[in-house]
Prior knowledge:
By secondary structure, this protein is mainly α. Helices cover 65% and strands 0% of the residues.
Amino acid sequence: MKLSYLTVEELARTAQESKKPISHIVLKEQALSMEKTEEEVYSVMQKSFQVMKESIQNGMDPNLRSASGLSGGSAYRMKQAAEQGKSHFGPLFGNALAMALAVAEYNSSMGRIVAAPTAGSCGVLPAALVSVMEDKKLPENQVVMSLFTASAIGMVIAKNASISGAEGGCQAEVGTASAMAACALTELLGGTPHMVCNSCAIALKNILGLVCDPVAGLVEVPCIKRNALGVANAFTACQLSLAGIQSAIPTEEVIQAMKRIGQQMPSALKETAEGGLAATPTGCRLCQEIFG
Length: 292
């Protein structure tokens, strides 16, 4: 078995033929290609998941602040709202938002995170998986396995489009993270490989065209709150797919569309802080206050 990671369909087809989840074939293939045992490869992923959990916990610190002063404390406030029953869309959703903010704020405060697939989008995947794991009381080993599915989806998108905000806008970062999370959740909650494909397509479609416009050039505003958007989008794509709803546009075509949109996007909207929210009067004022 040798996966090329060129299409999501290849992953799904191989999984269907082997009658195993995508995560299992990815783990096996990675072990073979790296000349390691499956246990060794799994152990590395398990350590990454541990870092994800630690970044969630550390990011909930009410006193956490970034060096710029632009971010910090939002995760704690969201967590408080969820714990006090003020999460109007349910505790799972409230906790997921808090976790996404926590990891992203911890990143902005120079904490240790797992780039999934990038530092700017690091909160989406941990928030989606940990919140669902706690809510559904799922075994941790199943959650760790779902990370192999997420990583494979990220590899396909990276090969065929981009996971860089500087190259493709925030659709390439938070969009990819959201697709990875949606696919991991879909498998984790019993979805078929075909449903995983649909989750990827739906998640990416929902976020096409999202620009990268960091205020003052820092990965804080609006990046941190976009991590919360990413986990909400992952939940949406996963739920639609598990209900049997299919994407009218095939996954590979959606990925190619994302690539073309990134190529057509002006440089001012690709991490240069020259357009979008970064160019608003408030964005310019904050930049002046931070850098003089």
